[in-house]
Amino acid sequence: MLPDNLFVRLVDTHLAPKFQHLANQDRLFCDALAAIHHNGPPPIRSALTDWQEKDGLIFYRDRCYVPADESLRRDLIQQHHDSPAAGHPGKFKTLELLRRSYWWPGMYTMVSRYVEGCATCQQHKPNTHPTTPPPQPIPADNVTRPFQNVTMDLITDLPELHGYDSVLVVVDHGLTKGVIFAPCKKTIDAIGTAALYHRHVYRRFGLPSKIISDRGPQLSAVPDRECGLSGCGAYNAHSMDFPTYLLRTAQSTYCS
Ligand SMILES: [Zn+2]
Questions:
Q1: Torsion angle of alpha carbons 8, 9, 12, 18, nearest 10°?
Q2: Is 52 in a helix, a strand, or coil?
Q3: How far away, in angstroms, is 92 Cα from ligand 1 center?
Q4: pLDDT tens track for 164-219
Q5: Which Gene3D superfamilies would you find in this protein's record (predicted)?
Q6: How many angstroms is it from 78 CA to the middle of ligand 1?
Q7: C-alpha of residue 120 to centroid of ligand 1, in Å
Q8: Is pLDDT above 60 for 45?
Q9: Mean pLDDT of the chain
Q10: Tally of domains in the chain
């Protein structure tokens, strides 16, 4: 290991003019400079000996003070996080690398936010739940008409308008990718959903062959006795029974 006196602490030379230019607009910088020159009260609860001036730059505890400029501070974090030499380290390592040469108030918060928002780090985030199965793509069927394969979902807790606070969203998963929105209430049940589907989708496109959903209670809670088939999951994506049930309940509700 080389002796300490062979190491020098450097500020990037191309950044120095930028530091000097921005420093005049920075109140903390000016306070620190005034304190050094006039031996007045030290800024932000630190001892005067913590601050030094060298070639127009302020050093706080031997680390260069970075003036309050968002883009300059962001550039520095980027250099210490995104560069190939840094290799996208975590927030503590990034902070440690940065603290070797630079300092500014609120450095930890800014570095944390930057690293948490780094797209590259997000993409390479390790899977901490390796037992969770990956999402399975839904296979495409041979469909011959619109809304033959549909996905259904409810958007709830919207601001109330005309007595409605939710929307039933039916998407054609097969041919057209078309979407039908039907206003409803959050308290809608299976029969209400079936009636809504009948009114907004069935009358125009007929019975679906397949319905895909997250098995929400608005349909999965259909009692077996109403379904007429024991154990028939109303939201079973692979079941042909639900569309039949849906048609039957919709007709009885709508025509009564
Ligand atoms: Zn990153």
A1: -140
A2: strand
A3: 12
A4: 999 999 999 888 888 999 999 988 888 888 888 888 988 898 888 888 877 666 66
A5: 1.10.340.70, Ribonuclease H-like superfamily/Ribonuclease H
A6: 9
A7: 5
A8: no
A9: 76
A10: 2
| Residues found in the chain | 256
Q: What is the pTM of this model?
A: 0.43
Domain that holds residue 33: 8-123
Q: How far apart are CA 128 and CA 6, in angstroms?
A: 43
Where is mean pLDDT largest: 39-43, 65-69, 222-226, 251-255?
A: 65-69
Same domain (yes/no): 37, 103: yes
Three-state SS annotation for 62-85: CEEECCCCHHHHHHHHHHHHCCCC
Residue 26 pLDDT greater than 70, yes or no: yes
Rounded to the nearest whole angstrom, what is the distance from the C-alpha of residue 64 to the centroid of ligand 1? 24
- CA–CA distance, 209 with 243 (Å, rounded to integer): 7
Cα(106) to ligand 1 centroid in Å equals 20
Residue the block writes with tokens 């039933």: 168
106 in a structural domain: yes
- How far, in Å, is the centroid of ligand 1 from the Cα of 116? 8
> Are 119 and 158 found together in one domain?
no
